[in-house]
Amino acid sequence: MSMSDRTFTLDEAQSLLPVLESLLRTAINAKKLMEEVDGEMQALSQRIFLNGGTRVDVIATAHRKAQRAKAEQRAKDALAEIDSIGVQVKDLDIGLLDFPCEVDGGIVLLCWKMGEPSITHWHGTEEGFAGRKPIDERIGRSRRTN
After folding, report:
1. What is the DSSP letter of 118?
2. Model confidence at 1, in pLDDT bands (50, 70, 90)?
3. Has residue 123 got a pLDDT over 80?
4. Which residues contact 26 (CB under 8 A, 6 or more apart)?
5. Do 30 and 72 meet the contact criterion of CB atoms below 8 Å apart?
6. Is 125 within 8 Å of 109 (Cβ atoms)?
């Protein structure tokens, strides 16, 4: 059984939130750092272009590029870790996760967004965040299938 087929009960999904939230924060912070460095490098090349060359602090620039590379690795590792748990990252910027859950023989997605105290919504596999519906007993009763 591959991880991509893994399903979660509501309780299981709920119990994973602290770990997942910490992994998401790692990935989000790393992505922010990457975007910062990208902005700095863009500004730098703009300056070089406008001035027909400019004094570049080569060591500081190399240091920032190394930080960016490390951040990228951190983000990749955190996302790979989430993926290996069997959870889908739908939107990294807002920290949106989907947990496949088996209900009445079909699969629905329990949906959680960073900042929400618990998992309270779900949607069908064809619908996105916009189609979120509140969890009802049927989903609360979902059991693990091995």
Report:
1. S
2. very low
3. yes
4. 74, 75, 78
5. yes
6. yes
Instruction: Write out pLDDT tens, residues 32-87.
Output: 999 999 999 999 999 888 888 777 888 999 999 999 999 999 999 999 999 999 99
DSSP state of 94: T
Of 4-13, 25-34, 125-134, minimum mean pLDDT range:
125-134
Q: CB-hemisphere CA count at 13 Å for 84?
A: 8
- Residue 119 CA, chain-centre distance (Å), reads 16
Q: Please state, in angstroms and rounded to a whole number, the distance separating the CA atoms of residues 10 and 46.
A: 51
Q: Which burial class, exposed, middle or buried, applies to 121 when counting CB atoms under 10 A from its CB (0-12, 13-18, 19+)? A: middle
What's the start-to-end Cα distance of the chain, in Å? 9
**What's the CA gap between 108 and 90, in Å, rounded?**
14
Q: Which of 63, 87, 93 is nearest to 75 (CA)?
A: 93
Q: What is the pLDDT of residue 66?
A: 98
> How many angstroms separate the CA atoms of 141 and 103, rounded?
8
Q: How far is the C-alpha of 55 from the C-alpha of 70, rounded, in Å?
A: 26
